[in-house]
């Protein structure tokens, strides 16, 4: 889908127009990326839910802003068990910046995703990160941009919203795929989106699958994991309070669920 064909919400079109006008980097970057799949595997071995916690000062779909030092927020998220971090770099609508991305990545040792609306290859060269977000719906040459990102050392996270975009991502050799539960045409969230799209992933596909948007409760975590999510990207639900505690609540969700299930198991005494 062309980024300017008008099939998105006005707020999103405004973001795309601004993104198209932003320059790229002057020099090609080369990144020594921290492996996201390895970080996911470490979290799983430790019994934690792999969570990408998002440093998001504001957005068109939330009210108000958060003015805390993003580096301190990032450190607290990692202390809460975050497997990776997502940092908004879109300035006009999300309050993000490339400077914030650089400061956060220097301050933590987990993989960091640059979350922005990247439309052209030269925009990859504006900053270093471990992962870059490429939204299938808005990229004209997805295979070309995926290849360009990989050539620089980035791990591209290709975001999709339906089965057709999923297959576009897989055909473009995407190894990390995020399913956005938010429909960018209407800005509505439906968690069944992930369930539907995840069920369409071929059994032999070697892909790390991420559930994005709308995950607000521990029950949502269980639901997305049951549907096949290898990791979850959580922004507003973490930023809405004490980020360390909220991150820990999501990363510990399966341990707490198992504890609850164990407590519910009848014992010999219960049977009498």
Automatic annotation (TrEMBL):
Record key words, sorted: Amino-acid biosynthesis, Aromatic amino acid biosynthesis, Decarboxylase, Lyase, Tryptophan biosynthesis
Region (Disordered): 250-272
UniProt-listed SUPFAM superfamilies: Ribulose-phoshate binding barrel (SSF51366)
One Pfam family named in its UniProt record: IGPS
Catalytic reaction equation(s): 1-(2-carboxyphenylamino)-1-deoxy-D-ribulose 5-phosphate + H(+) = (1S,2R)-1-C-(indol-3-yl)glycerol 3-phosphate + CO2 + H2O
Pathway(s) annotated for this protein in UniProt: Amino-acid biosynthesis; L-tryptophan biosynthesis; L-tryptophan from chorismate: step 4/5
Domain Indole-3-glycerol phosphate synthase: 28-245
Nucleus recorded as keyword: no
EC number in record: 4.1.1.48
Enzyme class of the recorded protein, top EC level: lyase
GO annotation terms (biological process): L-tryptophan biosynthetic process
Top-level taxon in the UniProt lineage: Archaea
Keyword presence, Lyase: yes
Molecular function terms, GO-annotated: indole-3-glycerol-phosphate synthase activity
PANTHER family: INDOLE-3-GLYCEROL-PHOSPHATE SYNTHASE, TRYPTOPHAN BIOSYNTHESIS PROTEIN
Protein name according to UniProt: Indole-3-glycerol phosphate synthase
Origin species: Salinirubrum litoreum
Gene from which the chain derives: trpC
């Amino acid at each position: 889908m062309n980024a300017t064909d008008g099939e998105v919400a006005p707020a999103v079109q405004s973001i795309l127009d601004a993104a198209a006008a932003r320059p790229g980097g002057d020099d090609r970057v080369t990144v020594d990326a921290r492996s996201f799949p390895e970080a996911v595997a470490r979290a799983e071995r430790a019994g934690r839910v792999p969570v990408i916690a998002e440093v998001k000062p504001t957005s068109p779909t939330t009210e108000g802003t958060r003015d805390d030092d993003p580096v301190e927020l990032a450190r607290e998220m990692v202390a809460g068990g975050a497997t990776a971090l997502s940092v908004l770099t879109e300035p006009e609508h999300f309050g993000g910046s490339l400077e914030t991305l650089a400061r956060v990545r220097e301050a933590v040792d987990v993989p960091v995703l640059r979350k922005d609306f990247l439309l052209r290859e030269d925009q990859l060269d504006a900053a270093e990160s471990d992962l870059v977000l490429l939204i299938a719906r808005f990229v004209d040459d997805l295979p070309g941009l995926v290849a360009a990102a990989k050539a620089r050392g980035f791990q591209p996270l290709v975001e999709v919203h339906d089965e057709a975009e999923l297959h576009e991502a897989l055909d473009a050799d995407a190894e990390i795929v995020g399913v956005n539960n938010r429909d960018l045409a209407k800005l509505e969230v439906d968690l069944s989106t992930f369930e539907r799209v995840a069920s369409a992933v071929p059994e032999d596909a070697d892909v790390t699958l991420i559930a994005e948007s709308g995950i607000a409760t521990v029950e949502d975590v269980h639901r997305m994991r049951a549907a096949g999510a290898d990791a979850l990207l959580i922004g507003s639900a973490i930023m809405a309070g004490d980020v360390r505690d909220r991150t820990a609540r999501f990363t510990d969700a399966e341990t707490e669920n198992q504890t609850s299930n164990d407590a519910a198991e009848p014992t010999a005494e219960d049977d009498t």
